[in-house]
Amino acid sequence: MLPMVISNYIQATIALKRINDFLNAEELDPNNVTHEPNKETPVVIENGTFSWGEDPILRDINIKCERNSLGAIVGAVGSGKSSLISACLGEMYKLSGRVNTDGSIAYVSQQAWIQNATLKDNILFGQPYDKYKYEKVVDACALRSDFMMLQAGDATEIGEKGINLSGGQKQRISLARAVYSNADIYLLDDPLSAVDSHVGKHIFENVIGPKGLLSHKTRVLVTHGITYLPQTDKVIVLKDGKVSESGTYLELLNGKGAFAEFLLQHLNEEIDDETELDEITDQLNDTAIGEEVRRISRSRLRVSESISESASERTGNGLYQRQISVASQKSIRSINKMVKSTESLGKESAKVKKGKLIEAEKAETGNVKWEVYKHYIASIGVWLMLSVLLLNITYQAFSVGSNVWVGIWADDNDTMINGTVNTAKRDMYLAVYGVLGIGQAFSTMLSNLLFAKGTIRAAVKIHRQLLHNVMRVPCAFFDITPVGRVLGRFSQDINGIDLRLPNAFQMLMSTIVRVCGTLFVISFSTPLFIAVIIPVAILYIWIQRVYVATSRQVMRLSSVTASPIYSHFGETLSGAQCIRAYKKQEVFIEDSENKVDLNQICQYPTIISSRWLSLRLETIGNLIIFFAALFAVLEREKEPALVGLSVSYALQIFGKNYF
């Protein structure tokens, strides 16, 4: 017990230190952002300097966003646009300055955060359902066609992190969530970057722009889409973490400053759509940089024509190959259609039609199959297990032999002759007792070493097999399997294989051998005890069957209810910024507590069943002690040492029976 106590103490100390470090880690200051009433400018940053760590990322920021206005934040990649949105949310360390927001906030992140729930639940996000408003938001965010393609419509369940959605779909759902929340301030971190240009125009016109659903809201939009900038009320240009200039679209163009430079660079390097380029050229035709824009447009046009001519030459030379390619593609498409139609007939189940994607994890029932034990023993090594079992039997034989030898020594009257110690006999008894003790030490040490080696090998082998299979499953597996369930296998279940299962196997072997040794000693000392063993064994087997069946199922329920905790924690962690922006912390905390409570509800029956078992095993132990003592008294001709050995072994039956 002492080595186990020391090991557990060290583990508890390390765990306590880690938890203490986590609980005492630096937190975001809730006073980073004040919420003083301001009718004119609901979003204000004055002389703000912000950082993610030690070095400042944003410096000397001064921004004012008027109520019901649309402000755009532009700049090169890495200039600090997303960081500025985070600063408005209070997610960055404020080194100096003042940040104030007046009103509720809706936030759309650059990487859309999607819950493992239905499309409808993702949009509502805890808000009450209003059919008229909901339908209006769905149409404005261009989600109607997506819903129509799905058999369950908006009741379709989304996989973890929106794994079964495209980037554009996730971004539109995230935007719809923000619009439906009906907040006062909208912080939009480049929500149009993941959608097609025509979809982006639809969303801007119907949601973000001057005639959209949010026209009466305060909007701060991070964007690379310069076609939208003429419709904004204010443009803020970031360069190297500073506001280089701000003003209306035309003011900044005519100023020929950082904004004009950014615009020309963006046109020259990042716009590939000729239609969009022509549209921007028309917009900027009469501005101060109109001539430069027309030059870029002509240059891009010449490059495009050159590429087209080269492509046409290759087309003439490779006409035959292309005909073959087209024919092949048609054949492949026809085959794919047949395959898909066949698969759809075979795989479309009621579950899919209802939009259910992730099936709840089900607890197994019934006995653990012998194949499971066989697989574990095979992983350890059959010959190694037999060697460990043989060494345990050897240890118990040495242990019983040493105790019997002490009894024989105590009953030997020839060790004293006329008050003088018979040194020859004493040395003989000591030598035999010492050899038996050394045999115990070596057998138990060798048994533990071999078993440790085998269980480590089994744990590594099983972990590799699990990892090998997970790394080779189809991607569809992760669509329908929560990450928490996979983590549960690699954490809780692997921990059981690493620690609990080896201890249980070792204790099982040693306990069986020791119980057999104990019953042998008692039966040898008091033969009448054999008559009691059979009814006691029947009673014990009945109790064991009842307990194991109950305990096994309770442990399965505990394991099943642990996976949702991991999934919910991971989902909450990845969406922490969105959750804080929408002020939904208490909702997610309560949800997490409910999942933990459910898991603890499944843990409680384990304690109750253990108490039920201990009461009955203590009764069996008392019966064994009673009959061992009774028969020892009845058989008066037995040697006192042997009787004492029988009773002492009977007293040890408590712990062995309980295991």
What can you tell me about this protein's structure?
- This protein is of the alpha/beta class.
- Among the domains are: 106-182, 3-Layer(aba) Sandwich (Rossmann fold), CATH 3.40.50; 370-658, ABC transporter transmembrane region fold (Up-down Bundle).
- The protein contains 23 helices and 11 strands.
- The strands form 3 sheets. The chain has a 6-stranded mixed β-sheet with strand order 5-6-7-3-8-9, sandwiched between helices.
- Mean pLDDT is 79; it is low at 307-353.
Distance between the termini: 15 Å
CATH topology (fold) name of one domain: ABC transporter transmembrane region fold
Biggest pleated sheet? 6 strands, mixed
Average residue pLDDT: 79
**Which CATH C-level class of one domain is it?**
Mainly Alpha
Poorly predicted parts:
307-353
Tell me which CATH architecture of one domain applies here.
Up-down Bundle
Find the structural class using helix and strand composition: alpha/beta
Family: Belongs to the ABC transporter superfamily. ABCC family. Conjugate transporter (TC 3.A.1.208) subfamily.
EC number: 7.6.2.3
Membrane topology: Multi-pass membrane protein
Keywords: ATP-binding, Membrane, Nucleotide-binding, Repeat, Transmembrane, Transmembrane helix, Transport
